Amino acid sequence: MLLIDKIAYESKLRDVSPVAKSICYLLLLVYMFALPPIFQMIGIIVIGIATIYTAQISVRRYLKWLLVPLPFLLVSFITIILTISNSKSELIFSAHLFGRYIGANEASLMMGYKLFFRSFGCLACTYFYSMSVPFNQILLVLRKCHLPSYLIEITMLMYRFIFILLDEMLLIHQSQNIRFGYQTLRTSYQSLGLLFRVLFVQSMARYKQMMIALEMKFFNGDFPLD
């Protein structure tokens, strides 16, 4: 079981209706999209405190998880604020390159500023939801939304195979570490290539084992979700 799933099953909100939590999640997303950055900052702080309290995790761990997607947000922020212009006067700061000026103006900075806090706020909302709603409750919410059963089954199978892949990857990586497979850059590349190759073979073997187990239980193509 992934750590985030363990936290969700032990959350103080685990017994709250999953539909109510899903509606609350959607309302929080609307809040992050609709209001200006100052209110988004307040929302991020409040949601963070609520997540730490209900999920019973440390502040350090929560901040560490928040920082994981930060490089992607920064890349998006830089991409948005940079603009190309023929006139230096239009830009707050700029660099001359190939006969043009690359920099940022007031409009691009404001757009990047708003997008950064909006994305960060939505991320905080998603963490709050994922740490308070176990996966089986998510499936029930999808069913109550009257989504096609095959779509729900695909979601469940994908979730299951995430565990299969992670389990196999950790076992292979641990065995390679014991054999000093990541001591140098060359051996690291070799071990990584071997890991992907063995991971594919082992995953297919685990898939066949799962299908055999389902057939032994008279699986007819439908997964009971009640």
TrEMBL record:
Q: Does the keyword Transmembrane helix apply?
A: yes
* Record's keyword annotation contains Coiled coil: no
Give the keywords, sorted: Cell membrane, Membrane, Transmembrane, Transmembrane helix
Q: A single GO BP annotation from the record?
A: cobalt ion transport
Residue ranges crossing the lipid bilayer per the database entry: 25-53, 65-84, 115-135, 147-166, 189-207
What topology in the membrane does the UniProt record assign?
A: Multi-pass membrane protein
Cellular component GO terms, alphabetically?
A: ATP-binding cassette (ABC) transporter complex
From the Swiss-Prot or TrEMBL record, state where the protein is found: Cell membrane
Q: In its UniProt entry, what is this protein called?
A: Cobalt ECF transporter T component CbiQ
> Which organism's genome codes for this protein?
Vagococcus carniphilus
Highest classification ranks of the organism: Bacteria, Bacillati, Bacillota, Bacilli, Lactobacillales
